[in-house]
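Amino acid chain
________________
===
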Amino acid sequence: MSSLVDEFDVSFPAISQHLRVLKRAGLVAARAEGRSRFYAATPAPLERVHDWTEQYRAFWQGRVHRLNEYLNNQP
């Protein structure tokens, strides 16, 4: 984790807290080797969010397009 602290201008406790939240959300996985911890991104939960929101893309694009047409045709 110290390499993350060095890479970003953020304190060790802040990095630790962020990693804890990401781990709880299933967005990172941690592996321990001795006193070191190695973290890896696990994007599957974000893919599920993307898949869920993607179904609404066409709906909202249509709505915004119609709103734009309406607003552009106002005197």
Notes: Residues 38 and 65 are 46 Å apart (CA to CA). The first helix runs from residue 2 to 7. The first strand starts at residue 28 and ends at 33. The mean pLDDT is 89.
